[in-house]
Design brief:
The complex is a heterodimer of chains A (290) and B (247). Chain A is mainly alpha-helical and 290 residues long. Chain A has one domain (2-285). In chain A, 72% of the residues lie in helices and 3% in strands. Chain A has helices spanning 2-30, 37-53, 59-82, 89-109, 136-158, 160-170, 172-177, 182-204, 214-229, 234-254, 260-274, 286-289, and strands spanning 126-129, 132-135. Chain A has a two-stranded antiparallel ribbon. In chain A, strand 1 and strand 2 form a beta hairpin. In chain A, helix 1 packs parallel to helix 5 (136-158). Chain A is globular and about 60 Å long. Chain A starts with a helix and ends with a helix. A six-stranded mixed beta sheet of chain B has the order 6-7-8-3-9-10, with helices on both faces. In chain B, strands 2-1-4-5 form a four-stranded antiparallel beta sheet. The radius of gyration of chain B is 18 Å and the shape is globular. The two termini of chain B are 35 Å apart. Classes of the chains: A mainly alpha (290), B alpha/beta (247). The interface between A and B is medium-sized, with 24 and 32 residues. The structure holds adenosine-5'-triphosphate (ATP) and magnesium ion. Adenosine-5'-triphosphate binds at residues 11, 16, 34, 36-42, 64, 97, 205 of chain B.
């Protein structure tokens, strides 16, 4: 029972971290809160499904293609929807939220609501680990999580573009004075965030069917994890995911499955009431904002 | 090299720069002196394209209305409405006031970012030059820039600007908050940078520490040009002398 709890808690935490990663990355690098995150996640699932079923492409190829396509959609969302209102936080939230809802409801409208919508797992079957049966796809999820963490760390610390994005997020005008462009940076970080939403979808969706409401769930999960951990901190994202991840598994095993979802909503409310900057939040000093 | 004609900058209805014309010739070190809110930063930021960027940004979101008139020519080319990046490509590099560095990055990463638009080889060359004129940076390479002292930050900030390969280097109050010794180091560095073929425009509130190395200087008050001259000419004017040279 304890091993079960530990392993499924960990998998659930990595699922949360993956779901939130794109949202957190875009916000951390460009300050844009992309409320279309859940919509992008869902859309990428359906794009992959359509590539497989309408074009007959192999699953793995379809998934890679989906990640690229979703990334491009993200960048275009910045260019078309966000750029004109950049800097007005409320407008950014409202316009991306509206777009996200539109994307999700579009798929409901065209009837993508049956049990036919599933993605194949990368590796089928399951394995026993210390007496706990776990399917390979869940291990794939953990692997993808670890791999992404390494890739992103390398990107932001050792590549020119990554350093430029971090520079822009720390001090826009100094970055500008070195020739880095702020709209380019924001567009890239939106594109990367959207691509990461797609990576998460490709890894997680094979666990079940693609259901419309996942679009909303993923956005709420991403919000709860990032708000809990502090919006701009990587360590916060990891700790936030672990806390919410284990708390969800704990409540649904010991209290009742229907309570699992209450946990992350309660987490948002509690954190905002007690420590609004999040557990790891750096509430910026006034001096730095000027 | 750089020619500014009748530059005016308004923030809403407040006039920050009032009809200023100036010229910087190849190989010079030129000073701009003025007290707080005289308009020094606004002038330098406008040359680097930052004011233009801010103006576009504010326009989009309906914030502060910024008006810029007049024109700027760099090596004969009109740069008045160019983006900051285009100006960096042409060799106009600004080192902003208050020693700005990227706090969460190491000194080395900061310097690398300075060469964002330059080729690998140019960045390496630039690094060597920077470590040569600021030897203390060599042992600070791996330190987080946010942890450095003011003087060390200024060396990093100027270092970044140098690796960006300036033809015209704009230094906004590089001596601000530095000890007399550190001020001397920065002034010495400026001379070496000029010997390297870089033209320099430097703003300061207090003229004495840099006057010996400045070829010509402009004095501005409340956005208006009040005097142009060499250091000798300035010292002869008792009012200027007491305001910008102390006693
Ligand atoms: N973004 C802005 N919005 C509104 N007013 C501004 C803005 N930036 C500067 N100003 C105003 O323009 C005037 C000139 O400011 P500027 O920063 O150019 O002066 P400065 O000579 O650099 O002063 P200091 O020595 O204190 O740095 C000031 O009155 C300032 O309040
Ligand atoms: Mg200033």
């Amino acid at each position: 029972m304890a091993a079960n709890f530990l392993i499924y808690g960990l998998v659930n935490s990595v699922v949360l971290m993956l779901s939130a990663l794109g949202f957190s990355l875009t916000f951390g690098l460009s300050g844009v809160a992309n409320f279309a995150h859940g919509g992008l996640y869902l859309t990428s699932g359906f794009i992959a499904w359509m590539l497989i079923h309408y074009l007959g492409l192999p699953a793995f190829v379809s998934m890679l293609l989906t990640i690229v396509i979703t990334g491009i959609i993200g960048a275009l969302i910045y260019r078309i929807i966000i750029m004109p209102v950049r800097g007005i936080a409320l407008s950014e939230v409202i316009s991306t939220m509206a777009l996200g809802v539109a994307m999700i409801e579009f798929f409901r409208y065209i009837g993508f609501v049956t049990y036919d919508f599933t993605l194949p797992p990368l590796v089928a079957g399951s394995v026993d680990i210390v007496g706990v049966s776990i399917d390979y796809q869940r291990l794939v999820i953990v692997g993808v999580g670890v791999l992404l963490a390494i890739i992103l760390w390398f990107f932001t610390h050792h590549t020119k573009a990554g350093l430029a994005l971090r520079g822009m997020s720390q001090d826009e005008y100094t970055a500008l004075s070195l020739g880095i462009e702020s709209d380019w940076a924001a567009m890239l970080s939106m594109g990367m965030g959207a691509a990461l939403a797609a990576v998460a979808a490709m890894a997680i969706l094979p666990l079940g069917i693609i259901s419309i409401n996942m679009g909303y769930d993923v956005l709420l999960l991403a919000l709860s994890v990032t708000v809990l951990g502090g919006l701009e901190s990587t360590a916060g994202l990891i700790v936030g995911s672990l806390l919410v991840g284990y708390a969800m598994v704990f409540t649904s095993t010991y209290i009742g499955p229907q309570w699992g979802t209450v946990v992350y909503l309660a987490a948002i409310v509690l954190v905002l009431a007690i420590k609004p900057s999040g557990l790891f939040g750096k509430s910026k000093e006034l001096e730095e904002r000027v | 090299m750089l020619e500014v004609n009748n530059l005016m900058v308004f923030y809403e209805n407040a006039l920050a720069v009032n009809d200023i014309s100036l010229e910087i010739k190849q190989g010079e070190i030129v000073g701009i002196f003025g007290s707080n809110s005289a308009g020094k930063t606004t002038i330098l930021n406008t040359m680097a394209g930052l004011t233009h960027h801010l103006k576009t940004r504010e326009q989009r979101r309906g914030g502060t209305r910024i008006t810029i008139t007049g024109d700027m020519l760099f090596q004969g080319e009109n740069i008045t409405t160019m983006k900051p990046r285009q100006r960096v490509e042409r060799g106009i590099i600004l080192c902003r006031e208050r020693h700005p560095v990227f706090r969460d990055n190491t000194v080395e990463e900061n310097l690398k970012l300075g060469g964002y638009l330059r080729k690998e080889r140019e960045v390496e060359e630039g690094m060597r030059f920077v470590f040569d004129i600021f030897p203390p940076l060599t042992r600070l390479k791996k330190r987080k820039a946010g942890m450095l002292s003011g003087g060390e930050k200024e060396m990093v900030a100027i270092g970044m600007a140098l690796i960006a390969k300036p033809k015209l280097l704009l230094l906004d109050e590089p001596l601000l908050g530095l000890s007399p010794h550190m001020q001397q180091e920065v002034v010495r560095a400026a001379v070496r940078i000029r010997e390297h073929g870089v033209t320099i425009l430097m703003s300061e509130q207090y003229a004495r520490p840099i006057m010996p190395v400045v070829d010509r200087a402009y004095i501005i008050e409340n956005g208006t040009l009040v005097m142009i001259g060499t250091s000798l000419e300035m010292m002869e004017n008792p009012e200027v002398k007491s305001a910008y040279f102390g006693t």
